[in-house]
What we know:
The complex is a heterodimer.
Chain A: E1 9-13, E2 18-23, E3 33-38, E4 45-50, E5 55-56, E6 61-64, E7 70-75, E8 84-94, E9 97-101, E10 106-111
Parallel strand pairs in A: 1-10
Antiparallel strand pairs in A: 2-7, 3-4, 3-8, 5-6, 6-7, 8-9, 8-10
Chain B: E1 5-7, E2 10-13, E3 19-24, E4 31-37, E5 43-50, E6 65-69, E7 75-79, E8 88-95, E9 106-107, E10 111-115
Parallel strand pairs in B: 2-10
Antiparallel strand pairs in B: 1-3, 3-7, 4-5, 4-8, 6-7, 8-9, 8-10
Amino acid sequence: DAKTTQPPSMDCAEGRAANLPCNHSTISGNEYVYWYRQIHSQGPQYIIHGLKNNETNEMASLIITEDRKSSTLILPHATLRDTAVYYCIVRVHGDSNYQLIWGAGTKLIIKP
Amino acid sequence: GAGVSQSPSNKVTEKGKDVELRCDPISGHTALYWYRQSLGQGLEFLIYFQGNSAPDKSGLPSDRFSAERTGGSVSTLTIQRTQQEDSAVYLCASSLWFELSYNEQFFGPGTRLTVL
């Protein structure tokens, strides 16, 4: 089972910031939070990842709460091309197997 | 540079037939992953390779599924005696090195398998 919970869908107006929440209340100290997105009929695309600190790159910002039980992906100025399913994933460490366990994600629809 | 490629892009087969799906990872990537995705669902992890070795095959759905990788590059996923429930998009990804704590996976476009 996925270790994260996300809302199934969200809308956001074009040009506004899109804030996508994720709960990962059972995360352990050495597990990273990853975000990927999947545009229709394409393979997933890496966005950002983090452990404890907030992270920012050219695509998005990742805000992780101090207790690490939740995080928020922020797309600062959403465009229509950001319409996709966004997956929040916790990297599971089992023996030597670093799996990414995927949930159903959040379908983000950017509206003009 | 070239990304991850998969072939065929679409495969329609009859129940009971064997199919072989191919993945060409990014050059120099030592880790390779197979996932499948049913319609409207998230990704289901199947197997990963570090080099030519697959340390854990427990994610494969049944013994009809097998995968191999040769030369640390191309990988094939084989499904024997296909069943209708095998219908899905099969995605391949590669990453630079499996043991890195940072593990950005680059995905291919997938193979859409339909079993009639």
